[in-house]
Amino acid sequence: MDYDISVPTTADGSLEVKVNKWLFAVGDPVKPGIDLVEMTTEKIALYAHAPVVGTLLEIVVKEGEMAKVGDVIGRVRGA
Amino acid sequence: MDGYWLDFGLMDYLPAFSLQEEYLKARIEGRLPPLVLLQECPRTFTIGRSGSWENILASPVELERLGIEVLEVNRGGDVTYHGPGQLIASPLFYLGDIGINGNQYMHWMEDVLIGTLAKFGIETHSRAEYPGAWHGDEKIGAVGIAVRHGYTFHGISLNVSLDLSPFQLINPCGMAAMPITSIEKILERTIPMDQVKNHFRDTLEERFKITLRDESLEGIRAHLNEAHTIG
User: Fold this and answer.
1) CB contact under 8 A, B144 and A40
2) pLDDT of residue A34
3) How close B110 comes to chain A (CA, Å)?
4) Does B165 contact A at CB distance below 8 Å?
5) pTM of this prediction exceeds 0.90
6) What are the residues facing B143 on neighbouring strands?
7) How many CB atoms lie within 10 A of CB B18?
8) In degrees rounded to 5, what are phi and psi of residue B21?
9) What residues in A contact B131, CB-CB < 8 Å?
């Protein structure tokens, strides 16, 4: 099963975040509890995790690009 | 809401942050209550995730001569300076408990800085375009936060009584020649750090409706060990 990785709702809904760095590459094994992607606003760093053990399937929003709260920025395929 | 208050006193940045990360992990796993960490640290420049080495104007040789360490850290924001006489506070809160998002949390922390300074009769304000606490055109308090799974870490720094000259070696928060001030500079007298911590604590407790209980480093380590055992 595939799972969406979205900008966390803990960011302000009206605010755009920059996808600063993907900490894993497509195809890498990932798991919950380990930072998967780092996003930033001017003064806030936000981290999202994989919801399940699996592999990073797709990077939808690339490093340096902007996204809003709830936007899908990547996908993980469950093991 | 109840939590712990741990004052490291003067401690190197990295060991203090290492404990912060360890506690945060146990917090995210739901095994420990909120914690507020306080510290002063030796002369250090930290570069946040929106920052750049280009905003450090001093050469590596000069930094070594001055004994200033440079660290890349996982908070928001750009470059800032930390040194003895500056209060650093890192609340490890869960935004879901408070009912606010990360951006609101940042503004609440600005409120806490402004409220703390008001207790010394110092009038400060926030600026929409440049987060922090400002006295006129001079910055006195900074915010740089991070959120993982809705749990906050990193936090604020407040200039109490310190040598401000190292700020001239950076573009603080990415701004060239940003004027910086301190409580001591404004009041023209030295204020004990403990008094600042007490006012900060009262203001934080009031703003976040939390009661903080003193805990020692040994006590926090014991809580962590207990949490690991349970986990």
Assistant:
1) no
2) 87
3) 12
4) no
5) yes
6) B156
7) 11
8) -65, -40
9) 42-43
**What tokens were used for B2?**
């109840």
pLDDT of residue B227: 85
Query: Is residue B58 within 8 Å of residue B21, measured between CB atoms?
Result: no
Q: Average the pLDDT over B182-194 and give the result.
A: 97
Q: Which residues contact A47 (CB under 8 A, 6 or more apart)?
A: A35, A36, A37, A38, A39, B74, B146, B147, B148, B149
CA distance B213 to B32: 14
Contact B149 A38 (CB under 8 A): no
More confidently predicted of B78 and A23: A23
Contact A76/B at CB under 8 A: no
**A contacts of B25 (beta carbons < 8 Å):** 33
Closest CA to B142 of B100, B120, B170: B170
E-only strand ranges, chain A? 2-6, 16-22, 29-30, 35-40, 44-49, 54-59, 66-68, 72-78
What is the spatial distance between Cα B113 and Cα B57, in angstroms, rounded to a whole number?
28
Locate A49 and state its tokens: 């995790």
Q: Are B190 and B157 in contact (CB under 8 A)?
A: no
Q: Give CA–CA dist B109/B151, Å, rounded.
A: 15
Do residues A76 and A51 lie in contact, with contact meaning Cβ atoms separated by under 8 Å? yes
CA distance B229 to B231: 5
- For residue range B15-36, list pLDDT tens digits in order: 999 999 999 999 998 889 999 9
- pLDDT score, position A69: 87
Beta bridge partners of B196: none
Q: How far apart are CA B215 and CA B5, in angstroms?
A: 6
CA-based nearest residue to B35, from B225, B207, B210, B206: B210
